[in-house]
Amino acid sequence: MQAELRDIHLPDPVSWWPPAPGWYGVAILLLALIFIAWWFMHKRLNPSLKKLATRELQQIEQAYTQHHNTQQLCSELSILLRRVAISYDSRNKHAGVTGKEWLNHLNDLCGQPLFDEQLADFLLLAPYQKQSSAPAERLISVTQQWISLLPRQKLFFKPSAKHPSVAISKQDQHSRQASHP
Description:
mainly alpha, about 60% helix, about 180 residues
């Protein structure tokens, strides 16, 4: 009778592929978490030019509330506007432009005529005058409005801590490479 019995046969081992349906859900969830973490870190570490310009404008405004020097305010706002304009658009378009043409470039960038003749005079002339009666609050609010109306722009590299608003846009980088073979 024992001779007629056969050996015990074990079932085939369970294969690891294909995984159970729950593992697909875990994989999708893990990929989603990795993407969300990457996106959050990218946003946090690479702020937009608008955010950097807004931060610098807030610093200029805070400094103005301490010193109340409209000549210095006009100078700092003019520098900020020029640096942001150069960062948004080609350096060749904005670096050497002055006067009414500069005003037109600023208005063209944001798409609205925010800077009128009076504000242009304050921005262009007040830094070189001993006494200036520039409307500081209006200059600050128009500059803030101008920054907020700018289109979203990607930065080519991360700005330095010393000059946070000085950054080169991808378009400006391409124009530099084309002009310097």
